[in-house]
Amino acid sequence: MSVCIVDIGGTNIRYSFYSKGKKLRIKKGIIPSKKSFLNILSDIFNESDKPIKDLVISAAGPKYKNTIEMTNQNFKIDSQKIKEKFKLKNCFLLNDLEAAGYSLKNISSKNNLILKKGNQINKNKVLVCPGTGLGLCLTINDKLVVPSEIGNSKFFTFQILQEYRNIDPSLFNKIEDFISGPGLSRLHRSLYKKDLLPAELINKASRKDLKALKTLDLFFEIFAKFLAEISLVYMPGNGIFISGSLMRNLEKIINKKKFNKNFVEHVEKSHKKVLESFEISLIKQEHLSVYGCKEFFNLTQKGLN
Fold this sequence. Notes:
alpha/beta; Nucleotidyltransferase, domain 5; 5-stranded mixed sheet; 11 helices
């Protein structure tokens, strides 16, 4: 028997078959446009040389009871229906950032770029992922992961628009409109009335294009201040972790000194010492949600033993 792990996003699907003591071999593909999610699962199961009795699914979208209605795909995933359809022993369904949160326990520091050094003062970690949208979760003691839908909230948006009067308010309604790949493009459109994809902006910035660099400076400044705000909410005394391909591609462009200054100095003087203690790391490792699903499954089995 083996465990099947499936991580489905807006464009790609990643999956692996997991047996205790063996390394994950992750496969990646484009989501078939004309297949139902059940048909996709059936195709994946057919690739396994062992019967599948346990399934862990990570999907991009808010979780409500046993279902996730995906934000970037026309799939409504119901773990109970899947369990019955394929006669599974277990079918676990996690939000993608929730799944990724479980991976933090085993992430090697060798895979991290330290943006800001800090000290551990509690067992809270926060994982933040600006990508197509903005994902965030809190992990407590490497066992409990609390997902959020903060990217779709208006948290901190009014303050940003008040502080940065050169930003066109009609383009920004929620926090992920600022802090995400599309948010990066919106900021550039707001400043220069020109549409550029995030990859184009990063490429121009790497070639020292002044307008692209100014857009990225603004993006990093807003992002650092957002991290300061959520730090006062979650008190991540065991670290803030940033992940995703967008931020990995920005690794060589980010000015760590300026980023840290915006992070610490955003708050009142009485809270600066607290923020100075929080470490901020950029995770270079990919496929966090897949590794997190594996860790989640192992935790559930420990609970049964």
